[in-house]
Write a structure and sequence with these properties.
By secondary structure, the protein is mainly alpha-helical. The protein has one domain. The chain is built from 8 helices and no strands.
């Protein structure tokens, strides 16, 4: 893969996860209602710090064990299967999911948004599962292009989180209590299709 393709595919892969509401989504709404737009980027800064730590741990801690043929095989099969499952569920649920920005959500008083971003990410079990399977598999694939490939993977990944949560923070700070449901569902369908496509590629590229 080229570096540009890694950035784009990493962006879409991360966006598909960010679109489904979780702890970080709730924090973004509550903190943006209290602090304004800046809360969104600050929360993602905390989220990004945690994810940089994960990437560094993989690169400098357990990389030798992950590059074996057997490890790559099982990571690809597991990650690809989860992608297929996530894609199917996203398409199935897209028609009924709604994106309501409840600005009455309780804010985390006394906690800086950067710290809240770190703790909010850690509190989400799906985030941990994602990094142990999908994130790990794609990171290993990106490593084929060396350090530039890893940077391209992370830039695309964090850019998706920053773009989505900044948009949510902007909507909340300007007093909008919803985002177009039609547009949201279209993004869900598109990301679901992408996940299925990427899951197949993940498996056959092992």
């Amino acid at each position: 893969m080229s570096l540009i393709l890694i950035v784009v595919s990493s962006f879409l892969l991360a966006l598909s996860g960010a679109l489904v509401p979780g702890p970080l989504f709730t924090l973004t709404i509550s903190e943006s209602a209290k602090r304004g737009f800046i809360a969104g980027p600050l929360l993602i800064l905390g989220h990004g710090i945690l994810e940089v730590s994960i990437v560094l741990l993989i690169l400098f801690g357990i990389t030798p064990y992950l590059l074996t043929e057997q490890a790559r095989f099982w990571i690809s099969i597991t990650g690809g299967s989860i992608l297929l499952l996530m894609g199917g569920m996203m398409i199935k649920d897209a028609g009924r999911l709604k994106l309501a920005l409840d600005t009455g959500a309780r804010a985390q008083h006394g906690m800086h948004p950067v710290l809240a971003g770190i703790l909010g990410s850690l509190s989400n079990p799906y985030w941990i599962i994602w990094w142990l399977t999908i994130g790990l598999g794609y990171l290993i694939s990106s490593m084929k292009l060396g350090f530039p490939g890893v940077v391209a993977f992370f830039v695309g990944h964090i850019a998706a989180d920053l773009a989505w949560y900044s948009m949510i923070a902007l909507a909340v700070s300007r007093g909008r209590n919803h985002i177009s449901q039609k547009g949201y569902r279209f993004m869900l369908y598109a990301c679901g299709i992408f996940l299925i496509f990427f899951g197949v590629w993940f498996i056959i590229s092992k």
